[in-house]
Amino acid sequence: MKSKYMDCQKIVKTLKHTDFVKVSHTGKCFEDGAAIYAKEIRENIFLLFIILKDIDIENIQALIAHFDCFSSIGLKEPEQIMFYLSIKDKNDLHYFEQYLRASHN
């Protein structure tokens, strides 16, 4: 039987191979110890994956947000959040993939 839980290491490897950049964060926007991966999808609109590692279950947050520039990610709050999803199992990840496909049409 396949696990319903995600393999965060596999997801991180996928992010690195699809032009996501790991962002260091020094502001108060994200939890301490979170790994943040970002990719610009339109001018100043970014797709972010925030991987939280401090808790018992792996938790990934996905968001599409507007920042004034790439370098402000991790320093400032986003100017606008257009989409947010907390991904805690493979079903959540499946819903997110469906959302991304629909947003390209």
Automatic annotation (TrEMBL):
It comes from Chryseobacterium artocarpi. This is Uncharacterized protein. It comes from the Bacteria. The lineage of its organism: Bacteria, Pseudomonadati, Bacteroidota, Flavobacteriia, Flavobacteriales.
